[in-house]
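agent> fetching stored inputs for the nickel (II) ion docking request
agent> found them:
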Amino acid sequence: MVYLTRRETFNAAHKLYNNHWSPEENDTIFGKCANKNWHGHNYVLFVTVKGNPDPETGFIVNVKTLSKVIKEVVVDKLDHSNLNLDVDFIPKDIHPTTENLVKLIWQQLEPHITGCQLHSIKLQETENIYAEYFGE
Ligand code: NI
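agent> prediction call returned; pasting tokens
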């Protein structure tokens, strides 16, 4: 089995805030991500698929096709968006954390992956933190 990863980037705004908590509690839990006037991140998305290389092409998937699908199904919707308000596949009642985003991106993308299997979604929010989801 061979694993192939495509990297894509997007930037987006969000706010992490629980309306049932006081501003102080939100600051304590979410820190700068609770800023009431939003803030942005430069996200890096890694989509890993797995399969066996086709004998005729040597590819497990055509990466141009894969990149096009990732852009159309996920990245074009996320890029330059407000993750709390704008994205049709992000429910309004969940916090747009990196942890929740990897699951939602998986659900969005998985039905569109053909000829190989989706293995993982990794999303880097800053240089120092990322979340990964393997579909479980
Ligand atoms: Ni943030």
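agent> quick read of the result: Residues 14, 33, 39, 41 surround nickel (II) ion (CB under 6 Å).
agent> awaiting further instructions
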